[in-house]
Amino acid sequence: MGLQDLIVTPIYLILLYALAYWIRPKVTNRDTRKYFIPGLTVKFVGAIALGLVYQFYYNGGDTFNYYYHSKVIWEVFLENPAAGLGLIFKPDIMSGETAQYIFRMYWYSDSASYLICRIAAFFGLFSFNTYTSIALFFAILSFSGLWALFVHLNKKINGYSRMLALAILFFPSLIFWGSGLMKDTITLGAICWFFVAFDRLLSKEGNFWNLFIMFVGAFLLVQIKVYIVMAMLPACAIYYVSKNLKGVENSVIKFIAAPFVITVVGLVLVAGAGKLGEIDPKYSLQQIPETAQITAYDIAYWTGKDAGSTYTLGELDGSWGSMIRLIPAAINVTLFRPYFWEVSNPLMLLSAVESFVLLFLTVYILGQKRFSVAPLVQHPLILFCISFSLIFAFAVGVSTFNFGSLVRYKIPMIPFYATALIFYTSLNKEGKLRYA
Fold first, then answer.
1. Contacts of 123 (CB under 8 A, 6+ apart)
2. Could you report the per-residue pLDDT of 132-189, keeping only the tens digit for each?
3. What letter does residue 400 receive in the DSSP assignment?
4. Which among 70, 73, 68 has a CA at the least distance from the CA of 83?
5. Which element (helix H / strand E) includes 10?
């Protein structure tokens, strides 16, 4: 970041706020209106803060690597607009005009990372390729998904707008790690949009637009971080089954139908996992344990060694058995660690505070409500949020082994886990949600 950021970014902030104030009446109501501008503002602050931290604390990092690639594409665009656009929209086509630039982009062969570079380059076309301005556009993409999730869930329950806003719009990790020029920003917005569209279609409230949004969200997740989809699919299947079975009043029919429906959904999930494995062989059912082993030790002792402190849950030997044995520890480390005595730098301290708050709220809410599995079975939305959170927590916890990286990787789970706590605490004495 430099002088250009100080000149261009304020202009874009004015334009983006003007656009936000124009859009606000169309996407808010009396309950949600007061959270729209503050929610957008903290995302802008988070996007800028992340860049400053990476520049002055880490002295570089992924966010500036993405920007470097967008800068190369910008240079191509200035010399040859058609070639520059080709690098954004037709990245697999190498020509004599672009070859010399492609050789400078070491992430060109990494389709997931290069997709982020292409998105950054696209926004760079409208902002003179200014880092901070590009980061603001990334923040908007993330905020749009979080806002859609907030509004969607707020319609399902009365009297909890403030708590939902704190959980979805103002949670510190979501503000900082989910706002800047990073993969996590795009995947956070994508997963929120995906679920909102999926739930609307499942509730027969959706239309073609929701179907389109769901597919775009799924496409981005598959292209950038396919493991998020692999964690989301079983949770969506559980949600689908529980929501449909809940509508069956006859207990006998429900008892007979449940095993059949679960079996069919299970077969569909296996087939879906197989297809995802074809897209990225690392995540085929056979390769997942080995991938988790390689990723965990690589992040802990090589690529992520400077991002924070290493942790270990036990030995991973590349087998399903070793992964399954670590399920409780992996879920715990994602949700509730680092503990205060594990802190080794200022950013870890912030993460430890968050983890402690989640632990305290979990224990307090479940204690107050005398935890029972029955509400989870009776309320499909709570069941979905818990299912996805636990599956995802296990997946990232067992394959990261580094607190500095884990704090970023776990953010897609946070809105859903926090929502599960909020919805659970709203249960009345009869175990019913205060639905709107």
1. 133, 134, 137, 138
2. 999 999 999 999 999 999 999 998 887 889 999 999 999 999 999 999 999 999 999 9
3. T
4. 73
5. helix 3-27
Cβ neighbours around 418 below 10 Å, total: 22
The identity of residue 335, as a single letter, is L
- The string of DSSP letters for 215-230 reads HHHHHHHHHH-HHHHH
What residue type is assigned to position 103 of the chain?
F
Cα–Cα distance for residue pair 136/420, rounded to 1 Å: 30
In 3-state terms, what secondary structure has residue 32?
Answer: coil
Q: What is the DSSP letter of 127?
A: T
Q: Hey, which residues does 310 pair with through a beta bridge? A: 402
CB atoms within 10 A of CB 387: 23
Amino acid present at 243? K
Residue ranges of alpha helices (H) inside 61-130 are: 62-79, 81-89, 99-102, 111-124
Alpha helices in 155-250 (DSSP H): 161-168, 172-176, 183-202, 208-224, 226-246
Q: pLDDT-derived band of residue 430, with 50, 70 and 90 as boundaries?
A: very low
**pTM for the full predicted model:** 0.90
